[in-house]
Amino acid sequence: MVEVNGGAVVAPPVSGLWRLADEMDSSSTEDRLTSVDSEYLRRLHQHDLRENQCSSMVFKHIKAPVNLVWSLVRRFDQPEKYKPFISRCVVQNGNLEIGSVREVNVKSGLPATTSTERLEKLDDNQRLLSVKIVGGDHRLKNYSSILTVHPEIIDGQPGTLVVESFAVDIPDGNTDDETCFFVKALLKCNLKSLADVSERLVSKEMAP
Predict the structure, then answer these.
(1) Over the stretch 35-58, which tens digit does the pLDDT of each residue have?
(2) What is the DSSP string of 39-90?
């Protein structure tokens, strides 16, 4: 089931902490803890895996308030604001709602030129965005992703934990590990860029 702003906010259980390694930067993996409960995240990041598919997730800690980060992530019609590999995005029929489809042009240098993507879910209460690739010139067949953002405190200041999970077909001639490594590398670049954009906006707001 897909929905926009559906249901009440579900608070994560207070019992238990999940140790999350920030896969973007191995130097920051030491004993990073978040109050986002692991079972709560698993409920949000559920993929119905089919045969010959792989799935994984990446994390990123961002030194910017959660509402600012979410304001960038939720713009299904403007992924180029933080995704460095996208040169152009056009939403079909100009509508932005569940089932909306966007046509994305990919910058040269990647094994892809275009991607057709459908908005599966957008929930402002849980700050969750789900997208499925439905066409295009690339190797990510039956790719779906779920991205959530969660408030946290970083160095005594409001910060954000971003979690992005995915499921995708394993191409012929590739292994589970090879496929996940490739996809996670792309997602890590996206989340690194998201952090850079978000933190620059914070710096501008704080400038005299």
Answers:
(1) 567 788 888 999 999 899 999 999
(2) HHHHHHS---PPTTEEEEEEEEEESS-HHHHHHHHT-TT-GGGT-TTEEEEE
